[in-house]
Amino acid sequence: MAERTTPLSLVENTYKKTRSNLEIIRKRLGRPLTLSEKTFYGHLIDPENQDLTRGESFLLLQPDRVAMQDATAQMAILQFMLSGRTESAVPATVHCDHLIRAYSGNDADLNRANEENKEVYDFLASASSRYNIGFWEPGAGIIHQIVLENYAFPGGMMIGTDSHTPNAGGLGMAASGVGGADASDVMAGLPWEVKTPEILGVKLTGKLQGWTSPKDVIFKLLEKLTVKGGTNRVVEYFGEGCESISCTGKATITNMGAELGATCSIFPYDSRMAAYLKATERSSLAAAADENRDILCADAEVAAHPADYYDMVIEINLSELEPQISGPHSPDAVNPVSAMKDKARELDWPTELTAAQIGSSTNSS
Fold first, then answer.
1. Structural domains in the chain?
2. Residue 288 pLDDT > 90, yes or no?
3. Residue 362 above 60 pLDDT?
4. Residue 256 CB burial class (10 angstroms; 0-12, 13-18, ≥19)
5. Which of 58-62, 131-135, 296-300, 353-357 has the least mean pLDDT?
6. What is the per-residue pLDDT for 345?
7. C-alpha closest to that of 149 among 93, 87, 76
8. pLDDT 10s digits, 242-260
9. Which positions ≥6 away from 12 have C-beta within 8 Å?
10. Dihedral sign computed on CA atoms, order 200, 26, 89, 148
11. pLDDT at 344 (0 to 100)
């Protein structure tokens, strides 16, 4: 029967495999490792012979989990069924959230979704049961929040058929949004193939002040790098400022890393993640992570000399960061709130607001 949470045995096996892989990788590279390298290389299928050239080679990886939302799960499962397997090679889940249209209110919207999508839901439920895939029915919650609350764990790797999959990076997981074909391949026991990413190191210092929130970190990166600045890169956060941000705040940041085009974003394990694991009734996973802290953060030498190990380094002082506004027209059109009045006048933007939407599924936590 599919688990409704990640079992301790899976986490312990992941840490064991990561350590075994990293022994080989350290001998090959002969240098300290970033957190991204530890996590990605820890999931290599063949660490002895894998080409590790950043930005050029393609890694063959074995993720720990697959997550699918209802709109994309249909084709992914149909493709998986052709593999001939009796169940998914890795733990997998289906989350019925995308086909629900928010319009009249919870009860009416859910009833309408069940009527409109009955055939889809019936197929996904029966296929999930047949292939030992976890099934979260309509109304059970939003996919990336369910993953964070139930399945994500520090040092793990997952792929998902949803653009918000990187949300799990807030709990120290390498989590990437992919297409349905990638998901079906991994469920069929094939490797996940991804270009060896460059690594963008983002050093956070200080502590968020006043109305500034975690999403402003991404806005600042968008201002510096544009929406293409994270392409074929992992965004790895480090520095004392990381621990000042809650686990859900970190998840907001890693989730919105998709705005940069990043492969994924990741934070090192810390006490805020441990507190979140305990609050979501996963104390055993926090204990396992505590015992493996050395593989859940970059080596000390990396933090001391980041320019030697990251392809690019950006420093953000959280204490000096002010609330940002992005747009109009593009997420990387970013301005601090204090400059918006003059900017609006300069560009002849409308200045009379009658309604506003603050937040989205990326920062609702």
1. 8-345 (3.30.499.10)
2. yes
3. no
4. buried
5. 353-357
6. 85
7. 93
8. 999 999 999 999 999 989 9
9. 288
10. negative
11. 83
CA separation for the pair 22, 32 (Å, rounded)? 11
Q: How many residues does the chain have?
A: 365
User: What mean pLDDT comes out for the span 313-323?
Assistant: 96
* CA-to-CA dists, residue 115 to 5, 73, 99, 187, angstroms: 29, 19, 11, 30
Could you give the CA distance from residue 342 to residue 91 in angstroms, rounded to a whole number? 52
* Residue 361: per-residue pLDDT: 59
Reported as a pLDDT band with limits 50, 70 and 90, residue 365 is very low
List, in order, residues 6 or more apart from 130 with CB less than 8 Å away: none
Query: What share of the chain has pLDDT > 90, as a percent?
Result: 83
Q: Which two tokens stand for residue 295?
A: 């593989």
Amino acid in the structure at residue 265: S
| Amino acid 325: pLDDT | 84
CB atoms within 10 A of CB 79: 16
- Calpha distance 276→270 (Å, rounded): 10
Residue 212 C-alpha from the chain's centroid = 22
Looking at the chain, the whole-number percentage of residues with pLDDT higher than 70 is 97
Sign of CA dihedral 12, 14, 19, 23: positive
